[in-house]
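sry for the spam today, last one i promise. struct tokens for design, 128 residues
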């Protein structure tokens, strides 16, 4: 296993409180997959979880060494949870093709959030 890239991002949770208060589900559906929207809305503090997921998407792009203004749709980078509840990254569509084109076999994710901030770190690794 070889590290291809590392990305990290820090997001203010208050920003997501404002965006969700102003635009609600419409905002969430623009940036997140249906499963991510459902998860965030099932939590007692949706903004905290949305902020962490957004940070994970940004960190993923950084780990893939891609400009955030690239051709990817944000929902193509999806934070999922495994059978033990641990977060992971799944890529779809052009995000998956991009990862594969640079030899990324797996993306490892760490999330954290408190009252004010959410952060994510992603390590992109190749199989070789």
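last one done:
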């Amino acid at each position: 296993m070889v590290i291809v890239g590392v990305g990290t991002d820090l997001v203010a949770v208050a920003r997501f409180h404002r965006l969700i208060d102003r635009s609600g589900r419409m905002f969430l559906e623009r940036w997140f997959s249906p499963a991510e929207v459902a998860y965030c809305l099932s939590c007692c503090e949706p903004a905290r979880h949305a902020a962490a997921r957004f940070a994970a998407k940004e960190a993923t792009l950084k780990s893939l060494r891609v400009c955030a203004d690239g051709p990817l749709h944000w929902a193509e980078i999806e934070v999922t949870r495994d059978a033990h509840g641990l977060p992971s990254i799944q890529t779809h569509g052009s995000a998956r093709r991009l990862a594969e084109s640079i030899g990324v076999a797996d993306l490892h994710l760490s999330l954290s959030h408190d009252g004010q901030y959410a952060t994510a770190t992603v390590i992109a690794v190749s199989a070789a």
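The mean pLDDT is 93. ok im logging off now
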